[in-house]
Structures are given as structure tokens and as C-alpha cells.
Amino acid sequence: MGAININDFNNHRINESEVIKRILGGEKELYEILVRRNNQKLYRIIRSYINDDAEIEDIMQDSYVKAFTKLYQFKLESTFSTWLIRIGINESLTRIKEKRKLHHLNEQSDNLKSNTILEIPDSKQLNPQDKMIQHEAKQLLENAIDSLDIKYKTVYIMKEVEEMSLKEISIALDLTVANVKVRLHRSKKMLKEKLYEVANDKKIFEFGFNRCDRITANVMKLIK
Fold it and tell me: Which pLDDT belongs to residue 115?
């Protein structure tokens, strides 16, 4: 078979199921395509559970490796990203449980370090004032989202930032569509008073180009 161009896949010229079938057929180097396509989304979802970048990247790698080793179990009835997100969420919840045990059931927030997770892409040539305004606006929104309970934060990130459908979210979180709608409504209501004007910014919790390359390279090494 001919080589698959990553750009063609990202532009949906190549069917995802075809890529997966070829990976299962032995072309494991094509897994890089799935990793790169899902890095941003997976990072944002896990970020709603874990507030430590090093740990998030560790969970991402574990999730990708587990998804690769279990890829033969994946049913092409849903998207790979939805299946991957469920793995990532389970890995995050497992890590949280382990953390609580190690710290004698202390509050999770007491054991996690706050950090700066913004990365402005190198291609964005902004003047100092614009950079400051952009940074402050994003930080305001991120701080407000971080203040939400996990169940609301996760739904908000999935729908408003990653623009997943209600059906996709319900599958990923094992909830009814009605429950997803309720959580989404409540999350928006809690955020509205503080930052309604900036709540539609799609650039928050960015994973960054260099970090995308690094974690992709790490995952590909682990599956070899």
C-alpha cells in the first residue's frame, strides 16, 4: 500500500478506520498519526482531572500505549478519540485514587501544585501589550474553569473547548445525554458571572507544538 500523508489524514482525506486497519496489519509507525491528531484533545480532558503538567504527560503516554496494545479491541463504530478519552479518564481516576491513598485521603487540591499551562505558539508574533492582554484573558478563564468541580469542568472542556457533540461526551463519560446537558448548563452558569465575555476562547489549555512533538516521539519509542 502507498504511504499515508499526515496532512491528508488531518484534513480527513484518509479514513480513520483505514489507518487503524493498517496499524493492526503491522504498520505501527502510522500510530503517530493518531497520536498527533489527539494530543491537544487528550491533554485538555486529562487537564480537567489532574493539575500537574508532568503527571498529565505521563498519563497521556500511558493512555496512548494502552490504546495501542488494546487497539485490536477497538470497535470502529465510534471514533478513536472517544475511545482514547475513556482510557485517559480511567487512567486519571486511577492516579487520583492512588494519590489519595498515599496522602491518607487528603483533599486532592492540597496535593497538586498550581502551574502555568499556557503556551503561545511561536507563529504568533504579538507585541508585548497584546501578549499581556492575551495571557491575562486566558489565565482568567483557566482559573475560573479550574475552580469548577471535576464533573462540570470535564463536560465544559469537552463541549465548549474541544467542541465534542453531546453524544460523544455521553459515550466518553458513560452518562445520558440529558445528564451531560444538565452538567453543561450548570458549568456555564457558574462561569458566567466571572468571565462570560471570554468564555468562547478556543485556545486555552494549549498543548504547544514542541510538547506535541515530544510526547509523540516518546509514545512511538514505547510501542516499538
Answer: 42
Question: CA-CA distance, 165 to 217, in Å (whole number)?
Answer: 30
pTM of the model: 0.72
Other Cβ atoms closer than 10 A to 207: 21
Domains of the chain, earliest start first: 6-112+208-222 (1.10.1740.10), 128-198 (1.10.10.10)
CA dihedral sign of residues 139, 202, 56, 165: positive
Is pLDDT of 102 > 80?
no
Cβ contact 77:83 at 8 Å: no
